[in-house]
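Agenda item 2: D-mannonic acid complex prediction
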Amino acid sequence: MHSASDNDWSAITTADDLVGLGDATVNDRELSVASYLRDHIAPLLIGRDPVRIENAWQYFYRGAYWRRGPITMAAIGGVDMALWNILGRRTGQPVYQLLGGRVRDHVTTYRHAFGWDLPALLEQVDEHLDAGYTHIRVQSGVPGLDTVYGVSRQEAYEPAGRAPRPTEETFDADAYVRHVPGLIAAVREHVGGDIALLHDAHHRLTGVQAARLGKALEPSNLYWLEDVTPAEDAEALRLVRQHTTTPLAIGEVFNTVWDCQRLIEERLIDYIRCAVVHAGGISHARTIFALASVHGVQAAPHGPSDVSPIALAASLHLGAATHNFAIQEYMGYPDLVHEAFPHAWTCDAGVLPPGDEPGLGVSLNEDLLRSEHYETAYPPVARRRDGTLTDW
Ligand code: CS2
Ligand code: MG
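Presented output:
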């Protein structure tokens, strides 16, 4: 292999000139991963055999004394994706074939609907229903709060602000827990029983608040309640679990199987949400999903617009070939992103076929990418009414 980065992109080029793209983006810490790749991984890639993917993964994971964490694991993930991509191109096979072939006809997806109030939310819900989606995540404003994470008063993709520092918002867990059950009951009434509804609480509740919310949501029959407590607090989730049958999803902030081993083995969750990009690539996400399959937990990877079309492709190829893969989040992208990353995967009426091109089936529109410049963007920081920071 040549250097991981002879050009501006994190592509790996083989000695026989095959190029493999990977994605290693960590939203709002992009430059740290770029440095990790450039300074610590690229020099060690030179001269390695690109078809020994597992060997490379083990080397970059176990060969470093300081392990894990989002930066390291995204960097390894980007390399891993690029190597699977190269293997696909070399063999002329889409990556899902190399992973054992398709186990399902399609990967189901869910879309986001948000609205500051119920009428605005239902308008977006109806748009998704008209487009054929069967699974919809619903988020809304909360009376008494000026902003709510993930809910925009305008059209938006990721709630990241381009400022020299993150914007700040006030969060009131009691107001939130009081408001959400009624809102979701109204959406359930609107859509009927057949549509799957999801909701994301973004890690901001205590165990007791979350348990109350889960119980209050039971009549609305959610597909899942996501990130209801801080992800690192397994005991908080156990408390929630003891008090409600609302299915629980968590894990977008996890980076290795060891981060979620306990939650999976003790069946404290129903869905594990690790993203291929942030959890060490296809090779390691496969390990996480395999552990989950032993314990009746389903895979449901993170897929907001800060997960790129390359990383989404990797997730879809893995999803096509993974038995316990329940659903893929797809938030969508601005048109410019579709143009910048021409891709073989498609999104149609609630399903995401990975496409049959060799490798991951994604390329770069380099001219377009060069014409845009990088700007750091930060998700907002949230504080409670007394000024202390929320768990997230
Ligand atoms: C969210 C994300 O998609 C989700 O489930 O939790 O929007 C998340 O907030 C962002 O990826 C953070 O960068
Ligand atoms: Mg989430």
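Discussion summary: Confidence is low (pLDDT under 50) at residues 2-8.
Owner for follow-up: CH.
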